[in-house]
Amino acid sequence: MEHFTLLLAIVVVTALVFDFTNGFHDTANAMATTISTGAMKPKAAVAMSAVLNLVGAFLSVEVAKTISGGIINENGIETSVIFAALVGAILWNLLTWLLGLPSSSSHALFGGLIGAAVMSAGFSAVNGGTIVTKVLIPAVAAPLVAGIAAMLATRLTYRIGGTTRNRSTSKGYRAGQIASAGLVSLAHGTNDAQKTMGVITLALVTGGVLAPGANPPMWVIVSAGVAIALGTYLGGWRIIRTMGKGLTDLQPQQGFTAQTSAATVILASSNLGFSLSTTQSCSGAVMGAGLGRKGGVVRWSTATRMFVAWGLTLPAAGVVAAVAELLTKQGTWGVVATAALLIAGSGAIWLASRREPVDHTHVTGEQTPAGGTTGTGPAAEPEPAGVITAAIAAVSPPPAGPTSAVDGHAPELAAAGSSSHTPAPAATV
Amino acid sequence: MKIDWAALGTVFGVSLAATIALVGLFTLGIAGLSRHEAAGARGGSATLARTGAFACFGLCAAAVSYGIYLIVV
């Protein structure tokens, strides 16, 4: 460990932070429908997902040898490039979480790597064709495949089972949802915790601590697993609300078909050689299940915001990472400045999120936050307008669920700054 | 640039078939159980419905086990 430089230590910590954001960003994939249909209590659901993520991190024997799947040339990559990529990915993950939009954490990481690599070594470091085959085509295919499967399955389940509900049906769909949500969590742990292990291992190899081609050391596996599990347990309630309530209204039958089709798409795609994003499969499945029921609706305005976020993921994370790489190239002060900017940016996003906290007490959008519970401060506390609030104004947050339209006044808040604040009519808090 | 349309098509086909089969089986199982419950409420019994239901759930459990196998191996 004598080669452990400051930069390397920062990269390892940053990678674990990314893993953590990945965890709470992606809790929604496994648990949003389970929570919104009432199959599990919110806290129990995220706890189960966290445990399965942790287990998943230890399960797989296949080591993530390549973190970008050939999108960038990883030979001779510098440690600072990895750091810059992580900075871009983390900030994008946090911003989409603030807006409650599900977006792919892997794509954020890819975007960061692309931006940092281009800034570091020019466009030749990036394989354009691989971007199309590994990112763009899957981004279109994943929601379509999962959505069509979920829609047809939903139609089928209503045709066979009818719409009647009694004790055994509700118990049955509950069990089914929990089982398929568990599968998604487990698959997420193996895939995404592996990715972080791959990033840390790559950084250790480039830093000269590990020999090239070495397996991740035990402390890397443990810390990556713990980081993703902690993130999952924290619960990305904003995204859970969008996925479980914002995109469509789900009955237990639909929750079950959405979750099942997401699980099969994820497993089929990762085993048949055409990897599809977990987040995009799950979002597609939820929309498909929404369309499959007679009289079901998809809130296309929310869906459109989500699609825009998907489209922006790669370039936005890339631009931030490129700027970060430009800074880190300046030497040690640049690295420290980048780290400080990352902390400041994350802090600003977190502060902005406090203005309208979403937590487990009202994630299903049916009750407003109860007074004394954790983290439910006064919802409409104006913040001085800054970069983040401006960004919120640019992409206004999705209305999620019937009574949770409090999001709607965020743009006005941002535009009005701290002085004049006219509450939107939909604000219920 | 080579797009592996065959792999994408396979993923689509397998996902569609597996989802519909699983959801169909599970719903049949639930329908069987609720028929059994309804019969019980009337004082009768519907053994066939109940047996069929458990067979369906068994197949679903097998599918979940296969899913775990796919994740682990």
From TrEMBL, chain A:
The chain crosses the membrane at residues 6-24, 44-61, 81-101, 108-129, 135-158, 196-214, 220-240, 307-327, 333-352. Residues 359-383, 396-429 are annotated as: Disordered. It is a multi-pass membrane protein. It is found in: Membrane. Keywords: Membrane, Phosphate transport, Transmembrane, Transmembrane helix, Transport. InterPro entries: Phos_transporter (IPR001204). Residues 364-383 have a biased composition (Low complexity). The keyword Membrane applies. Its main location: membrane. Belongs to the inorganic phosphate transporter (PiT) (TC 2.A.20) family. PANTHER family: LOW-AFFINITY INORGANIC PHOSPHATE TRANSPORTER-RELATED, PHOSPHATE TRANSPORTER. This is Phosphate transporter. The lineage of its organism: Bacteria, Bacillati, Actinomycetota, Actinomycetes, Kitasatosporales.
TrEMBL record, chain B:
It comes from the Bacteria. Keywords: Membrane, Transmembrane, Transmembrane helix. The chain crosses the membrane at residues 6-31, 52-72. This is Secreted protein.
